[in-house]
């Protein structure tokens, strides 16, 4: 039996509910600054989230719907790079303003895991600066071993590349790692790497196929705050205080390994 040794967290939608009121807002403000006739609504952005990565998302939109202006093919990559750099600035401003808090239970379970001696890491397709801002602004004091972000791997989720790299960083076996994801693509990526998966749903992912995850909850829960509701998996994994606790996940997944 292998004991769980690491908790690995996706960022957007898991650590912070960033997509609707963070990234989407930042994209739209950036489009407006650049004079582009583009505004991504809540439902439209949900569909665009099926494309992993912000630059990839814009490239897909440019190729399928356009930006409302003529963009010569040889200038598209440069424009997307400029848009993405500015969008990251706007997103970081939102983080630093305190507009995007941690999701319920994230800091608590990270601290519990650290107290158990587990390795903690973040594995996200979000820009490196955005990831650094969230770590610095919201996760101060949490002993993260590494943050993998942005273009650290060539292929984005659902490709397992970022989790394969995480295994190298951890020097662990796949069944010794629990990944916290929120989306179908993220859960598929973690499972393809052979890891255990806890899915924490949000507005954009609550109706996605998360059947490959070992445990699906609406959040991790906080004492005196929003309780966790188990949607798939063992109901008794949620403690009487309404929280999913690190030691319970370690015990359960270690038995499964």
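^ Assign residues to that structure.
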């Amino acid at each position: 039996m292998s004991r769980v040794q690491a908790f690995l967290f996706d960022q957007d939608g898991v650590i912070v509910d960033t997509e609707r009121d963070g990234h989407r807002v930042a994209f739209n403000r950036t489009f407006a600054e650049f004079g582009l006739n583009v505004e991504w609504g809540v439902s439209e952005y949900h569909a665009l989230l099926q494309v992993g990565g912000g630059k990839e998302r814009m490239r897909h939109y440019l190729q399928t719907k356009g930006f409302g202006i003529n963009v010569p093919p040889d200038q598209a990559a440069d424009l997307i790079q400029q848009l993405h750099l500015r969008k990251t600035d706007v997103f970081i401003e939102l983080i630093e303003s305190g507009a995007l808090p941690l999701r319920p239970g994230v800091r608590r379970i990270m601290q519990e895991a650290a107290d158990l001696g587990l390795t903690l890491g973040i594995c996200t397709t979000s820009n490196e600066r955005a990831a650094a801002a969230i770590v610095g602004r919201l996760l101060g004091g949490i002993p993260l071993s590494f943050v993998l972000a942005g273009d650290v791997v060539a292929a984005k989720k659902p490709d397992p590349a970022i989790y394969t790299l995480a295994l190298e960083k951890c020097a662990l076996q796949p069944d010794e790692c629990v990944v916290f994801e929120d989306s179908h693509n993220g859960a598929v990526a973690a499972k393809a790497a052979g890891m255990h998966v806890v899915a924490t749903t949000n507005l954009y992912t609550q109706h996605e196929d998360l059947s490959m995850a070992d445990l699906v909850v609406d959040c991790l829960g906080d004492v005196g705050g929003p309780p966790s509701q188990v949607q798939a998996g063992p109901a008794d994994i949620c403690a009487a205080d309404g929280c999913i606790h690190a030691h319970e996940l370690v015990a359960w997944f270690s038995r499964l390994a």
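The longest strand covers residues 119-123.
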